[in-house]
Structure formats: structure tokens, C-alpha cells
Amino acid sequence: MLDTILDSPLSSWLQLDTDATDHIVISSRIRLARNFDGVLFTNRNDMSSLEKVNSFSRSLLKPLKDVDGHQYSNINLEQLSERDRAILVEKHLMSPALEEKLPYRNLVVSDDASIVIMVNEEDHLRIQSMVSGLRLEVAYERVLKIDKAIEAKYPYAFDERFGYLTACPTNVGTGLRASVMLHLPALTISGKITRLIRSIIQLGYSVRGLYGEGSEALGNIYQISNQRTMGTSEKDTIEQLTKIVEGIIAEERKSRQLLLHNDKEGLEDVLWRSYGVLQNARRVNGKEALTKLSDIQLGVDLNILPQWGKDSFNELIAITRPNFLSKYAGNDNLTDIERDSYRAKIIRQKLSH
């Protein structure tokens, strides 16, 4: 299973629905922060506690399979190469923070990689459920079944007044983080994204880049998530975030039409230039690739550029990341120049189909 996860550019939850027409919403994620009752939190760095949590997680494979019928595997991060750990980050299956910590750290992953449990990250467990499109309720229903199965076997640290207890006070309460990954090229091109982000933050939500906290919005991809976990229910959190995202989708669509109305030729020029560069370039760095791939997807959505596969954008985002690209090439020792050359070659091949 590990080889499949590492070798495949696209997890199932990044494969868009066939009825997706404008590729604005990429995916939805629900993450639950949980800690076992009577065990020191991960940040205490107590080896016996870390080992106990690790042992608990290894015993969960069968109970989780009984919940949803999926096969679950345990991935020991200590046994992975630095490159393979980086690939798991690039594929959004674990956080950069977990990549840096090794003793007794592991992942419990479903066969379709839509359920991933980070073990001994900031909390004992970070249970994640991921689906394509704007379907937070679907992600929540599945993660709730997983959560209940674990709690039935190992009770969580819970307080009647405060809710689920977590290492960071900002997660106390429901422990739930709901997030949606969005592709917002028109809002970015029109310069409206800064105002929109400011408004979202004022509503108590966070806006992050492609790889979460502290990362850039590469390829005009943003992640919108809740910040409050106390004083609001899981259902309310999901409903409120869904409404906010629906508003963002409407703004992106409006911006696309305004760009077409105000200067269609100018927009076509930008998009065709990006298409031309990637169709002919012999070297492309990672940041430029994502920027121009974003332009191409916008051009496809607006029927300006030739159509490509519905998952081409998501697939190329994954393939062109530096660590996955090295694995794809079968060479861990690519120089920066060789990597840029191979990235350009892969994109040219995709555009020529």
C-alpha cells in the first residue's frame, strides 16, 4: 500500500467529480485533534508515553477496517527516507511538523488515502478525512465513525466543561478543523484576493497556502479553515464554513466574468502566453510551473484554451513538486537544473496529449 501511495500522483480525494465544471473547489478536509486519557501529551516528549500512543495506533488497523471496510496500514516514519517523508507532505497526507519528528511517529492510512491519522504530532492523534469538492459533511460523517471506533477502544482526554483536551488551547473543545482547498486565479489576477482574505480573517477563519500554515498560495491555491473549536458545535462549524466557501466561489465566478468583460483579449493574451511557455519551455522551476498551470486551468475553465483531462491540473501539481518529481524520474540525485528540465518535459508531454 505504501508504494501505491508514494507512486501515485493523485489520491482518490483529489480526483474531481465528473460534474465539476469550473474546478474552483479542489477538496474538503475534516481533522480531529484527539489525545488519550491518562497519557502525557506529545509535547512533553516523554518516550514511554510516545511509545504507548504508537502501540495504541498499531492496534487500530482491524477495528478501523470493521468500521468502513477499507484496509488500513501503518507507516513507520522512521523507516522512510527523507525524500519519501517529503512526498507525504507534498501529497497533503501529513504535516511538515510531523516530517521533522521521528521517534514513535507514524501514519495510519486507509487504502484510498482518504483517511490518514497522524500519530504523535502535536496531539496523540490527528484524524483526517479528505474528499473531493465541497463536501465537508461527507468528510465529517466518515471521520466521525473512525473517531467513535477509536474512542470505544481507548478513551480520550475529555472534560465536561471544556470538551476534548488538546496540546494547543486553540484546539480545545470540538478539536475539529474543517478546511476547503480552493483554486482562485481570477480573484488573484484582479487583485481582489487581499480584501477577501482580510474579510475572511475578520470572520474568524484562517486562510493559508497550498501546504497549510506558513505556506505560500502557490498556483493560486488557498485553504480556508475555521479557527474556533470552542463554543460552537461541529455541525455549526461545517455549515458556517460551507456558506463562506459558497460565497468565495460566487466571488471567483464573478471575477472571471468581469475579466472577460473588461479585457477579454488581455486575459486571453496572459493565458495563451502561459500555455505557450509550458508547451515549449525546456526548463521550468516549481513556482513558475504552478503559476502557469493555474493560468492554463483558468483558460480551460473559460473555454479559452484547449481542453485537457479533468484531473490534469491536480495531477501536475503533484508531479511537479520537487520530491515527487525526483521519484517520478527514478533519480534522487537530480540537480536543480536537471529537475527543472525534467519538470518542463513532463508538462510538455501532458499538454501534447
Structural commentary:
With 353 residues, the chain is α+β, with helices and mostly antiparallel strands. 48% of the residues lie in helices and 16% in strands. The chain is built from 13 helices and ten strands. It has helices at 2-7, 47-58, 61-68, 82-90, 96-99, 136-153, 185-189, 193-202, 234-280, 286-301, 312-319, 322-329, 336-352, and strands at residues 25-34, 72-76, 106-110, 115-119, 125-132, 158-159, 163-164, 176-183, 205-208, 221-226. Helix 3 (61-68) packs across helix 6 (136-153). The longest helix is centred in the C-terminal third of the chain and has 47 residues, at 234-280. The radius of gyration is 21 Å and the shape is globular. Its EC number is 2.7.14.1. ATP binds at residues 27-31, 92, 126, 177-181, 208-213. Keywords: Allosteric enzyme, ATP-binding, Kinase, Nucleotide-binding, Transferase.
